[in-house]
Structure formats: C-alpha cells, structure tokens
Design a protein that fits this description.
Blueprint (H helix, E strand, L loop, with lengths): L6 H29 L3 H28 L9 H16 L3 H32 L3 H34 L1
Helix pairs in contact: 1-2, 1-3, 1-4, 2-5, 3-4, 4-5
Length: 164
C-alpha cells in the first residue's frame, strides 16, 4: 500500500476510492430498482444509474489528466453500505417498508458520495487543478440533487405509506 504524504496523494486516494464506490453503485443499482415497487423510486434509481456511469467516466478523465491509476482499489465503506442496505431490504415485510428501506440505504450511499466528492473537490482546488475541481463539483451537485429527490420521495410519499 502506497503511503500518502501530501494533498496530491490524498486526492489520488479519493479518486480511486470514489471510482470503486461508483463501480459498486453501478453494480447494485439495478437490484435496487428491481426491488422497488414505487414507480417514482424505480425511475430515480434508473436515472441515478445513468448518472453513475457518467460519473465513472468523469473519474476516468480526471485520473488520466492527473496521470494516476484509478482501478485496483476497493472502497470498503461502500462495500459496507451496500451490504447493510441489502440486509435491511431483505428484512422488509411489505412493499412500502422495502421502498422506505431502499431510500434510507440509497441516502446513506449519497451522503458518503457527497462527503467524498466534496473532499476531493477541495483537494483539487488546493492544488490549483481547476479542471479537476470543476468535474468533481459537477458530480457533487448531481449527488446532492439525487439526495434531494430521494428525500422528497421519502417525506412526501413513501414514509407516510409505511407509517399508516
């Protein structure tokens, strides 16, 4: 394992970690979409899958610009978030409870991504890597938008259905 000694090393690690996280998300979103019963939730997952694939491409572009390797790292945090989400989803006794569990799981994932992309963008800013910072900021905004969509679905509809 390579030692991190400076902000550039931290940024490189964040890019690798985020790429792995996106890989895991792309792999697991189809199952989340399939498990969802609410049409709007299914649509949100389908949309986020497309976004995640584009976000992977952005990370590849960033890695190439910076001359760093982006593959070969496993994001253990995302691995845990995915496993936890799968476990809770299986425990849901009704469609409504499963949809609520899917949203909760997805929002945990979004919050992790928001933290990671925000940190990486800050490092890129510090290094004067404006193009990299701009690409990371674009993804950060998409992650915030997805979180807002999930939050609105939970508050306005899904959680109310489970509560009844």
């Amino acid at each position: 394992m390579k030692k991190i000694t400076d902000i550039k090393g931290l940024l490189e690690h964040e890019i690798q970690d985020l790429y792995s996280a996106e890989e895991q998300i792309v792999e697991n979103l189809p199952a989340m979409e399939s498990a969802a019963t609410d049409k709007e939730l299914k649509k949100a997952f389908a949309t986020h899958l497309k976004q995640s694939k584009e976000q992977q491409k952005r990370l590849e572009k960033i890695a190439k610009q910076m001359g760093i390797e982006y593959k070969g790292h496993t994001c253990k945090a995302m691995e845990g978030l995915v496993k936890e989400g799968q476990s809770v989803i299986k425990m849901a006794a009704s469609d409504e409870a499963r949809d609520a569990a899917l949203i909760a799981s997805a929002q945990r994932i979004e919050h992790y991504e928001i933290a990671g992309y925000g940190t990486a963008r800050h490092y890129a800013d510090m290094l004067g890597q404006n193009d990299v910072a701009d690409l990371l900021a674009q993804t950060l905004e998409e992650e915030k938008d997805t979180d807002e969509i999930l939050n609105d679905l939970a508050i306005q509809k899904i959680n109310k259905e489970v509560h009844q």
